[in-house]
């Protein structure tokens, strides 16, 4: 019976490994296995983003709205240039870069697959400047570029397959229905904890990639440390890191400081170009117009009188 169980588990493992495609995450080079296509994910994200924007209230602050769009487009251009330069030009077509600032007092921003980004007004008092905003938007864009949503969906699918097979295996081994339910409940709880850790890995990767993207776009990555310090000060209720899907502020700042030397290699400060206009002396050349005198010769017509 044990050998039969091992055969079933081996078959399940083979099926899970063979399903999907292997993708390489930009910047970090991490390998990921995806069981959902870009088209499936983008279709769903576009629908959800449109539904959200139907009920959301756009910011009426034109200055802040323009800033969000400007910083976002600068980052998007840097990402597209990177993808094109590193053999990933096929991925560019998956993005429909959209940046909206909405009326919400929460200090938050998020990105759906395909580059559909939303920033809440409550975040701006903490970012305080464009460079810090670039750190946040770079982080959110990184989630899309790294296909974190597709990877999370793929993980959930694999777990569901595993739970279903586990229940079927329990039936084969003669376990009662109650025992099967307990196994599934324990598995579900374990999977949730694993997903939380898995999500923290995504957050760390997004921090890393976002820092690089901000530097590529010409924003000083060194402002990330002070920004996250301000964010930490604004968080009154901090959740224990073990039960959180985000790394603690202290851990995040430590990691960012470790990635800073790499980010600075990409950083090229935006320079302000001063244009000096010299007075140009225009010498007007006198145009000599030669008038041609046309002499019209009068033709004298002699009328001959014919006498009869």
Characterise this structure.
The model is unreliable at 4-18, 178-187, 191-196 and 273-308 (pLDDT under 50). A hairpin with a 6-residue loop joins strand 1 and strand 2 (31-34). Strands 3-5-4 form a 3-stranded mixed sheet. A two-stranded antiparallel ribbon has the order 1-2. It has helices at residues 2-18, 38-55, 62-85, 124-127, 130-145, 148-172, 177-216, 223-234, 249-266; strands at residues 21-24, 31-34, 98-102, 109-112, 116-120. The radius of gyration is 34 Å and the shape is globular. It is built from 9 helices and 5 strands. Helix 7 (177-216) packs across helix 9 (249-266) and helix 8 runs antiparallel to helix 9.
Tell me how many strands there are.
Answer: 5
- Largest beta-sheet characterization: 3 strands, mixed
Largest sheet strand order: 3-5-4
Low-confidence stretches: 4-18, 178-187, 191-196, 273-308
Structural class: mainly alpha
Proportion of strand residues: 5-15%
Series of H and E elements: HEEHHEEEHHHHHH
User: What is the general shape?
Assistant: globular
Q: What is the CA-based Rg, rounded?
A: 34 Å
CA distance, first residue to last residue: 150 Å
Separate helix tally = 9
Helix content: 55-70%
* Average pLDDT rating: 77
